[in-house]
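@channel anyone free to eyeball this complex?
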Amino acid sequence: MLKEPAIVLANHLFDTPNGKTAHGLVRGSGRFKVVAIVDPDVAGRDAGEVLDGRPAGIPVVADLDEAMVLEGPAPKWCIVGVATHGGRLLPELHTLILDAVDKGLGIVNGLHDTTADDAEVAAAARGRGVELIDLRRSKPRPALHFWEGDIYRVRAPRLAVLGTDCALGKRTTTRLIVEAMNRVGVRTEMIYTGQTGWMQGARYGIVLDSIVNDFVCGELEHAIVGCDRDVEPDLMVIEGQSSLRNPSGPCGAELLLSAAARGVVLQHAPGREFFEGYESMGLRIPSLESEIDLIRLYGAETIAVTLNSKGCPPDELDRFRAEYRTTLGIPVIAPLTEGAEALVPAIRAFVERERSAT
Amino acid sequence: MLKEPAIVLANHLFDTPNGKTAHGLVRGSGRFKVVAIVDPDVAGRDAGEVLDGRPAGIPVVADLDEAMVLEGPAPKWCIVGVATHGGRLLPELHTLILDAVDKGLGIVNGLHDTTADDAEVAAAARGRGVELIDLRRSKPRPALHFWEGDIYRVRAPRLAVLGTDCALGKRTTTRLIVEAMNRVGVRTEMIYTGQTGWMQGARYGIVLDSIVNDFVCGELEHAIVGCDRDVEPDLMVIEGQSSLRNPSGPCGAELLLSAAARGVVLQHAPGREFFEGYESMGLRIPSLESEIDLIRLYGAETIAVTLNSKGCPPDELDRFRAEYRTTLGIPVIAPLTEGAEALVPAIRAFVERERSAT
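replying in thread with the prediction:
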């Protein structure tokens, strides 16, 4: 797949958890070549520097005009790289999108509000002859699949990357695991479940939260069955969404039951006490141990814990890690700084177990 | 609410689990007065007799013509009373619906396929000036709510009726509990989560499986908040859908987390070994005990077990009941034959506990 040059809009949100789509694109995409991030708040710096403290070779610029005159390949796409409350296309974004269309860029949008349903944007896009890609637009009903149980005939074992909260790195961990396994010759495919996964170039998956509820499990099964048929991988790693007990929208049981993932890598942020966005309500994240018990009741084993170190000083993280390793007896790593190589033996063993079980 | 006379289509499916919408309407509706069930396979009998072995005063007739000439109030509506695979509007149903429109009846349809999107039916309805009500038609995005946490300010405690499988009587048990509690002066509202609940006259709720996934929890919260504000009941009983571990579409966590139901009545069919519709795959229903453990991990207590006796001889049912009572230490009843009166003390105690906890 030839990567197409793209600008990513992240205005005022790049250095916040709501810039997570932009973060994913900076960390890597097989679909787009990101030429610039637009965010006046951190303009002038390198995007990787802002994000992970390591240069990524992607400049942050103050506005679209600046992005259009950078050296290198001319951008073809403008990607909405932020999550807004309720997935709304806020006025400032709307103005930027119109400007991007005016500059001849196609729009890639993962918000709930679609650009195609916005009369002004739609008319401008027609006028300029550019494409609008709305990743959360629902498929028409006749194109949707119900769950049929075909998952039990899928050859490749499924590993789910779940988390104890949303926005703590499940997708990034999924990507790192997929890369690490492929490097050691285990042919591994990512099954994406959000729009950023698609943007990053994963070929099989769904945008889970934009599917009519009755079809979520069937569409997930359908994506996995298709991947198994087309690619015949040795392993699939399914990106989790939200968390099993997030009251704003629990998710994960679908991956364990309907996608029949028998292994779980559990992403956890020891420095985070409350569910993201619900700190003021005091909605406490349940313990790692009880999450593992819950996962077991769904028929899956947690084979590793991956830590997000945000809000957790290094010595405290080390203490957590040592404690979890002892009490749980499974690998515990911090993939963003260490990569996922250390998980290879445990995941290989999981693949072997699953193969010999079928 | 004045009940409107209706005919219910259940052709060839009335005496099967797929006739469950018709079953609910025979057992009771505050919205419609059912004047006849259409099903040639069991025509000539009383619908209650076929269903529960007790006459309901509702004749089963062979076709619509017969239904239109019965004594009593002239029917105004024709309700699609069956669930088809995938919620499709099958050819035979399509023909019957056209015939009903032609006879001047409005259509109430809970299938995924909408009648309004069927060009032929839509044109016929316009021509005859009758209404088409499609209960699973999705609301437009701007009308949908996200979960906000307002649930924690709702005064009335919530009790969820969950089950260990789908199609085993959750909705009927919900109705029986609501009626039993109201009879003893505990002002109780049903929160429906399927189209049949609405058909039966429940005022607050959602059609859960037809909502875009990201909005399911918010819409459920919104319905409950509205009920609390408008009616100020002493208790709400929320109808469950599917089951927590049904691989074809797990459901229930939303009720426990997003609707914050702290008490559960758990419906179980001891005579059923496999998930409905997946017998040939050998998908075994987990044990009652492990389901209760799972519910506990979601922060709720199971305060009673309600049994569906289908496929379970009376002496075996009695043995199950005695065993469950002993091991679980909570009431165990068979509501369809016994009513829900025996649950009143346990539910009253739950309401008291919840009140004193807030």
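from a first look: The longest strand of chain A covers residues 32-38.
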